[in-house]
Design brief:
It contains ten helices and 15 strands. With 335 residues, it is an alpha+beta fold. The two termini are 62 Å apart.
Length: 335
């Protein structure tokens, strides 16, 4: 019974409900005052009034819905009109905002099912999917989603800095015994292990490595589907590869496929390169004062391996072999 009254009350709040109540009250007054009226004419006028009310409401919603989001083409105007009508009926899908590559939602928003909308700032891009396939790659602007679509992942288009290895205050080799706080000690040793590598003569070195990286940008900045040109650039294929990438750890006994976030891959590759090259030098060679030191050579080789398709090979003593070898790391980053 309560549901019936609730539904009836909601109907009375609609234009048709207001017109119906007004018509009934008006004809009740006419009947009480013994003023004659034609039922057929009154019913016809009621139908016309309701039709006009619905038409005007639809047109007003269509007009004002264009100011809800920064849309720029006729197709998007129709889409936002449909979303506003769905919102009014309570049957809407998720409305999401992606800022700097992070999805910002209200509680329970991701659980909604239905046609939705995503607003991306100029530093964000995302990939949409269904339960069975990858659908679309979207850049900055507004994207209207179908009922079966949801976000597979999002990325930050800006250049990013990442620091791995010990902090300047850690000094993990000067304090090898547990300090007063076991938790702090474990954190220090964890950072030490992030970049730990052995020299050719068996000494352990754990540097602090800084990495600057970003999603590959197009040669020319072009507007996205919704008409937005991002200052950071947007390359759909690069965004798609970054989000859908999978890494196979061949070192595992079962060769299991482990999902690696795109922004972890540069650090993963750089640390592996660091460990590969430090094995070619003795500790004293890393800090040589005459000529180019081992550390300078390692830094130069790492930069080349992630930026060039082919690099000069080094032998087991860190001496150039004269042969050019293919950089697998570069291929992984640009693919």
């Amino acid at each position: 019974m309560r549901k019936i009254f609730s539904t009836f009350g909601a109907f009375l709040g609609t234009p048709a409900g207001v017109i119906l109540v007004t018509t009934l009250v008006w004809h009740g007054i006419l009947w009480a005052a013994n003023i004659p009226f034609n039922i057929m004419v009154s019913v016809a006028l009621l139908i016309i009034d309701v039709a006009i009310a619905f038409f005007l409401q639809n047109r007003l919603v269509y007009f004002f819905s264009q100011f809800v989001l920064p849309i720029q083409n006729p197709k998007d105007r129709k889409e936002i009109h449909a979303r506003v009508l769905a919102f009014g009926s309570g049957k809407r899908g998720p409305a999401l905002f992606i800022k700097n590559g992070r999805v910002i939602t209200h509680e329970g928003e991701l659980d909604k099912r239905g046609a939705g909308v995503i607003l991306l700032d100029t530093a964000s891009a995302a990939v949409l999917r269904t339960d069975t396939e990858i659908r679309d790659t979207v850049g900055p602007g507004v994207k209207f989603t179908d009922a079966d679509e949801y976000i597979a992942g999002s990325v930050d288009l800006r250049s990013q800095w990442q620091f791995i290895g010990p902090l300047a205050s850690d000094q993990p080799f000067l304090n090898p015994v547990p300090i007063s706080s076991p938790k702090e000690y474990n954190e220090i040793q964890g950072r030490r292990q992030q970049t730990s590598g052995l020299t050719r003569d068996g000494f352990e070195v754990s540097p602090t490595i800084s990495i600057k990286f970003r999603i590959k940008r197009p040669d020319e900045k072009r507007p996205t589907e919704s008409g937005v040109t991002s200052q950071y650039g947007f390359d759909a294929s690069s965004v798609r590869n970054a989000i859908t990438r999978e890494v196979i750890h061949l070192g595992k006994s079962d060769n299991s496929r482990v999902r690696m976030e795109w922004n972890r891959l540069p650090a993963h590759l750089v640390v592996n390169l660091w460990r590969e090259y430090i094995r070619k030098f003795k500790l004293a060679e890393l800090f040589a004062t005459a000529g180019v030191s081992g550390l300078q050579t390692i830094e130069d080789m790492i930069n080349k391996r992630v930026r060039q398709s082919d690099v000069m090979g080094l032998d087991d003593a860190g001496v150039p072999t004269g042969e050019w070898v293919e950089s697998i790391e570069y291929k992984q980053l640009v693919s």
